[in-house]
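USER: Fancy drafting a protein?

ASSISTANT:
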Amino acid sequence: MIESDSIRTEVQFAAIIDSLPIALIMVDRQGKIVLVNAQAERLFGYAGAELRGELVDILVPRRFRGNHADLRTGFTRTPEARPMGAGRNLFGVRKDGSEFPIEIGLNPMRTAQGLFVLSTIIDISERLQQAETLQQARVALALNEALQESRDYAEAIIETAPTPLVVLDASLRVMKANRAFYECFETRVEETEGKLIYELGDRQWDIVALCKLLEGILLSSGQFRNYAVRHAFPALGERIMLLSARRLAGGKSRPEMILLSIDDATERARVEDELRAVGRRKDEFLAMLAHELRNPLAPMRLAAETIRATVSADPAVTLGAAVVGRQVAHLSRLVDDLVDVARIKRGMIAIHKSQIVLDEVIEAALELSKPSIEEREHHLIVNRAPLPIYLDGDMDRLAQIVSNLLNNAAKFTPKGGEITLSTLVKDGHALIKVRDNGSGIPAELLPHVFDLFFQADASHARGYAGMGIGLSLSRHLVELHGGSIKAKSGGTGKGSEFVVRLPLHEVTASPAQIVKPAATEGAKTATYRVLVVDDNVDAAKMTQMFLQTHGHEVRCAFDGLSALGLAQEFKPDLVLLDISMPGMDGYEVLSRMRGQAGTAPPVVAALTGYESEAGMERMKQLGLDHYLVKPVAPEALLALIASLG
């Protein structure tokens, strides 16, 4: 009978330690493994039979094994419960050879068979990864008391764990709670054991959903992890606790039980909230930065275009205007890319699909990239598919993708190099290929070329390195269209090729019905009255001068109230309205302007440094006709005016 009880006890002990979420390994005085629980098997990737009888050194990286043997010998001379290697970085090695950081608690066990050491092992990889933001560290589990009999093993493990643990019976009454539980919640044994879980304290665990989860474990032999409870605890104040539970199967002499662990996640949640707040402030800063940069860029761009359009015999003036125009356009693209990156990271970027022809995308991209290619004197070859290719996509965003690839090729191809742009249909998809004979991409860097802010060579010698945004942005935009993008290269000095793959669109309209960008170059434009409303005096006057050089009658207002009066007097055909103005902002000006009595209302176009979906929607509700983001391309402004007729 005694032998039968001993066997039953051993079986119960094995079941209990296998159910614990803690890796346990027991070794003898010689360092040979005699016991391994299921969690340790999963942690190291071995089956228990593979480890039992082996030296524990098999789980230690080779470079540490010599020192580990000395530490093990020292421990057997003065055995006492303590963490292993205090102050040192400890690592384990899995069956597949991979290493990972661990914490180990050592606990001597003196039995009739001699001295054994029970080790608790925790994989701290995730904790180390989050250390900078969460600033949390979990102390290593340590067994503080020598385990005398096998029936006491489970209680000793629970008692010494630093995480509050509770053992419940099938009726959800507390059978046992560990020291960490009593210390954390400042309660006593007589107030806890024998009580229903939802009766504890001020009934802080009286949560219907929690009770259902616990009851469900008993019915389904399952478990749950990280159920969050937010509560104002008497001893702790407002806290967030993560509860995890697992069913411990019963036996002939032991009832079913539930092991419940309680992890205080308050600090972690606070840090995550702070990180989200930092993210919001960063996004707000980027929006404000974009606005502040776009405001001065707008008059600069129009000034350059006005000078360029003015006949001048001085080649220095002509060259200066062209340089300013190109550099302002480049700065504008950088600002747009920064804003787009912030939107993508928040999942807020939007595309507006319609049925389009790929050739129109290519034309728009070539126009955008023309300055970069001409500046480096590259030879550009364009190979178009023999038949029109139809897509369901956002014209502007697709042109942005192709332009980014062309600009990237221009940056990393030596002066006078060759760039080839090709379009074709293959396997039911449209392919866009951009190939160059430039500096190429080393094989080890190819997997990272689409990473945000990645630069293959960030040295100062690379004057065209950029910010590492364009390719990452292109990948996200391609994926939003249901496509893919890949980079190829033979290596350093062997050029590179980028291939965009997009789904084809079944044509539902005749080619004549598909909307194409309106052509304005060479068209005779009628004269219109234009009212420019902007508190930035330079921007307003420069817009006025530019439009006047194209034959239009233009007036300026530098605040909302003046704009309303001038609108009634001047009766403009078009109002270019800034949104962010002190006093009466653009929203109020538009609302009042639409409410003014008189002749037919003018066409109103918002002209703003902010690019906001919410702002655009609000302006539309107030009767806005067009929404333009500074700095507006001169040709886009002229196209808008041409559309008035």
About this structure: The CA atoms of residues 303 and 542 lie 6 Å apart. The first strand starts at residue 23 and ends at 28.
